[in-house]
Q: What sequence folds into this?
């Protein structure tokens, strides 16, 4: 099966209306180029300070998902809303939620970010996503005719066990929408995205935020589409919004997994044992 995909790179900010209009415009560009699957980045409709989260958060379905469902239906494509702020039952906290919409405009899958971006790199970045975001508790693969789509968001990329579970559950294509910090992005983004593709012999589509918001939130960009051998099929070439496209031959996943059968060679009987630690 051949699948035409697009990663939409955005420079979102605090203006939800502006962010939505830019997202719609670039999704249409991707559709005009023949994309059947289009992915937006993390926090695609609001990338702003924590103080604005309450006003930006919505239910799912809600105003943003309804608007984007109409777009997906009108262009007959699968539209991955990288992530948006979803209301939660926990006072003062929200979910960071991916929503996947099918060509018929129906919600196919939702995924709430499991690993939250709590970091303390002195002199570089201090951030605690967990102060305002509640973690999800499910691993999600959306099944389509001909391929499975494994869902993840941004900081999840540092946890390979999540991606192995996605692959074992049938993911041929893995989504990593992101708003990756510019400092850690320069050091780790490309390496991590390619590693997740290589270790699972899966395609990875990674749409990212780029640029610095008015409030000083600096994101790395460098949206990527990577094949199961770790080769970069397409990548963003600017520090601005753009559409990155590639054609995936989904049969390549099975071919690579047959060549180096990492799924078959796993040893959960050993992994589940207590690790022996020796002292020198």
A:
């Amino acid at each position: 099966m051949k699948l035409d995909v697009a990663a939409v790179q955005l420079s979102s900010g605090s203006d939800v209306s502006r962010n939505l209009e830019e997202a719609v415009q670039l999704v249409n560009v991707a559709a005009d180029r023949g994309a059947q699957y289009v992915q937006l980045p993390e926090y695609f409709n609001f990338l702003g300070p924590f103080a604005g989260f309450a006003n930006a958060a919505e239910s799912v379905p809600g105003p943003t998902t309804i608007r984007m469902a109409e777009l997906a239906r009108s262009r007959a494509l699968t539209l991955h809303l990288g992530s948006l702020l979803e209301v939660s039952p926990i006072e003062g906290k929200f979910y960071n939620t991916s929503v996947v919409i099918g060509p018929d405009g129906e919600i196919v899958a939702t995924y709430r970010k499991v690993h939250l971006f709590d970091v303390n790199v002195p002199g570089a970045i201090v951030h605690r996503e967990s102060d305002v975001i509640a973690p999800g508790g499910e691993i999600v693969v959306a099944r389509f005719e001909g391929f499975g789509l494994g869902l993840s968001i941004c900081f999840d990329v540092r946890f390979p066990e999540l991606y192995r579970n996605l692959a074992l559950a049938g993911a041929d294509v893995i989504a990593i929408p992101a708003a990756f910090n510019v400092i850690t992005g320069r050091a780790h983004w490309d390496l991590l995205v390619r590693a997740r593709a290589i270790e699972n012999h899966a395609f990875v589509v990674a749409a990212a935020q780029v640029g610095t918001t008015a409030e000083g939130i600096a994101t790395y960009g460098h949206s990527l589409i990577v094949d199961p051998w770790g080769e970069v099929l397409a990548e963003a070439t600017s520090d601005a919004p753009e559409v990155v496209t590639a054609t995936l031959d989904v049969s390549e996943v099975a071919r690579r997994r047959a060549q180096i059968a990492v799924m078959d060679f796993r040893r959960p009987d050993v992994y589940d044992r207590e690790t022996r630690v020796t002292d020198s």
User: Anything to note?
Assistant: DSSP finds seven helices and 16 strands in the chain. The first strand starts at residue 2 and ends at 9. The two ends are 54 Å apart (CA to CA). The CA atoms of residues 119 and 125 lie 7 Å apart.
